[in-house]
Specification:
Elements: H1 15-19, E1 22-28, H2 32-43, E2 48-52, E3 67-68, H3 80-96, E4 101-111, H4 118-131, E5 149-151, H5 153-159, E6 168-179, H6 182-195, E7 199-202, E8 204-212, E9 215-223, E10 229-239, H7 245-249, E11 263-271, E12 279-285, E13 292-300, E14 303-313, H8 324-337, E15 348-360, E16 369-370, E17 375-378, H9 379-382, E18 388-392, H10 399-413, H11 436-445, H12 453-463, H13 467-471, H14 492-501, H15 507-514, H16 525-539, H17 543-554, H18 561-564
Parallel strand pairs: 1-2, 1-10, 2-7, 4-12, 10-18
Antiparallel strand pairs: 3-6, 4-6, 5-6, 8-9, 9-10, 11-14, 11-15, 12-13, 13-14, 15-16, 17-18
Helix pairs in contact: 2-6, 2-10, 11-12, 14-16, 16-17
């Protein structure tokens, strides 16, 4: 079946449009779930607004191992529906975001003859092969997922240099997928919603609900940049605020039962060096607490994303902070799992942290039990309050499917006929690439000074078929085609594109979420200064405002000065 392209409109932060009409749906929350919901609703013909209290993808959606899971691990619980759902959604992302999502080789050593042994892994991969026979219904061979295999102990130790062979019986290899830039995938979803008619705005916070006769009629919102307040009228509100779901519901007069039982902090490291050529699962046994933990080392853009460590989070979502103990615990676990890597504190270029829903609390020394199933809660049924639906998401990979199910229910509630959105086929902006290897060759061939082949490939992986839109800014100002510094492939035109086309309003928006300038760690000071100069000139900032924005970036708790001072 053909993929349906959508040609991008400009994302504008137009608060007047939010306040001047009634919407069918207001989606609150600009992470992967809110973005997918807004896109789904818009493509189903609903007038849609999307608001986010911070910047898009600035919360939990920015914290991940960058893996797009096909659900192999769900075979341990024989959760076949969830595996099938993951296979389909992985294929959808490979098809609709071919510049951002790519196949990923994975492996894991086998041990003994139980669930971690060769026999169990063989059976699991055979069953996975049968259940995912349709995984490669994609026209581009570069996106195909090979079948899993078993390898010998010697080959396992060769692929994981320094791995102690004691207890290792061999290894299992398979393929999943990874996302090159998770923030740009969320931006692409929001762009897709805007292309379909949605009105989106970042830095807009819901502060109150307007209720009448058991129904929500509107919400009160505050512009976090100016402090001004206004109402947004809507027939239905979707609460997709992730860790803030319970907090948002506490604004209601009726105070409905909180759908989330608690939160866990999930922590991953970005390491400065790429340790292994494939994503690798390794187990460690802590000296205290007992039990084995599975960690993953994920190769990503010449770095390694390593994790994940979980602990119960106490307090509000806004109080989330990564502690020195968190960092030391994950460092210790990684060292136990792979001593040959000789992990050091200075290896960490950044940390990725986010809050996830849990099933229930365990003893303080035990790892939290994460929620593993999404929830779609219609508060008309549960709390006799019309006009509000809450979506509790659990996995980045399957956000589109949850959005499809949610909007199907919303259409019924609003008395609209059932409608197929086509999001499983509709390309995200930049996705008009039918042969990625050919696109890579074309990118290299299109390199003309000052654009090097490295820069052109970088643009392809971030912007795909919309690379030309970015390069067009260099027609009038050729200097914008130059890189911001010798340590990056980001060019000045990307900064202008982020501001004019993608609603970037602060320097952290540009550095951490619209470009990959700071997504794997802070760039060199001169490079960051150059970025700030371009943005200051474009936005009309004075020296004081420019310096304030630089301070925001440098003081980032996940990439900036606090991390280098050995505390977060």
């Amino acid at each position: 079946m053909p993929c349906l392209p959508i040609h991008s409109e400009i994302m504008k932060r137009d608060l007047t449009s939010l306040a001047s009409r009634e919407f069918d749906v207001v989606v609150v929350g600009g992470g992967i779930y809110g973005a997918a919901l807004a896109r789904e609703a818009s493509l189903c013909g609903l007038s849609t607004a999307l608001i986010e209290q911070g910047d898009f993808c600035s919360g939990t959606s920015s914290n991940s191992l960058k893996i797009i899971h096909g659900g192999l691990r769900y075979l341990q619980q024989l959760d076949i529906p969830r595996l099938r759902n993951s296979v389909v959604e992985r294929r959808t992302l490979l098809r609709t975001a071919p510049h951002l999502v790519h196949p990923l080789p994975c492996m894991m050593p086998t041990q003994g003859h139980g669930m971690k042994g060769r026999e169990a892994m063989f059976c699991g991969m055979l069953l996975n092969e049968i259940l995912s026979l349709d995984r490669n219904q994609l026209s581009d061979p570069e996106k195909h997922i090979p079948r899993g295999t078993l390898i010998s102990r010697d080959e396992t130790c060769r692929r994981i240099p320094g791995l102690a062979p004691a207890g290792i019986t061999g290894g299992a290899t398979w393929h999943d997928a990874y996302v090159f830039n998770s923030e740009r995938l969320v931006t692409g979803m929001i762009q897709g919603a805007v292309d379909a008619g949605a009105v989106a705005a970042n830095y807009v916070k819901l502060t109150a609900f307007h209720q009448s006769n058991g129904r929500i009629t509107a919400i009160r919102a505050r512009d976090e940049l100016t402090g001004s307040e206004f109402d947004i009228s809507s027939r239905l509100v979707i609460n997709a605020t992730g860790p803030w779901i319970n907090d948002l519901l506490n604004l209601l007069d009726s105070r409905p039962s909180p759908p989330m039982k608690g939160l866990a902090l999930g922590l991953n490291f970005i390491l400065r060096r790429q340790l292994l050529p494939q994503a690798t699962g390794l187990r460690c046994t802590r000296k205290t607490g007992g039990g084995q933990r599975l960690l993953f080392l994920m190769p990503w853009r010449n770095h390694t994303v390593a994790g994940t460590f979980y602990r119960i989070h106490k307090g509000t979502p806004d109080s989330m902070a990564v502690t020195e103990q968190d960092i030391e615990t994950l460092l210790s676990d990684l060292t136990l799992a792979y001593p040959a890597a000789e992990f050091k504190r200075e290896d960490i270029s950044g940390v990725l942290a986010g809050l996830l829903p849990i099933k229930h609390e365990r003893a303080s020394h035990e790892e939290p039990a994460l929620a593993n199933h999404f929830s779609i809660i219609d508060h008309a049924r549960q709390d006799r309050l019309e006009g509000l639906v809450t979506v509790v998401g659990v996995k980045y990979t399957t956000a589109r499917d949850v959005a499809t199910r949610t909007i199907s229910h919303v259409l019924s509630k609003l008395g609209r006929p059932a409608r197929v959105s086509g999001t499983e086929l509709t390309l995200l902006p930049g996705g008009e690439i039918h042969d990625f290897q050919q696109a890579l060759s074309d990118a290299r061939a299109g390199a003309t000074p000052p654009l090097t082949a490295e820069v052109m490939i970088h643009l392809l992986y971030n912007f795909g078929s919309e690379t030309r839109t970015v390069l067009d800014f260099g027609k009038t100002v050729p200097a914008l085609l130059e890189t911001l510094g010798p340590d990056t492939s980001v060019i000045g035109a990307e900064i202008i594109h982020a501001i004019r086309h993608e609603m970037a309003v602060t320097l952290p928006d540009v550095v951490f979420r619209r470009t990959d300038l700071g997504s794997a760690g802070l760039p060199a000071p001169a490079t960051l200064q150059r970025c700030a100069d371009i943005m200051a000139n474009e936005c009309g900032w004075n020296v004081s405002r420019r310096n304030e924005e630089l301070t925001k970036v440098m003081s980032s708790p996940f990439f900036g000065e606090p991390l280098r001072r050995n505390r977060c």
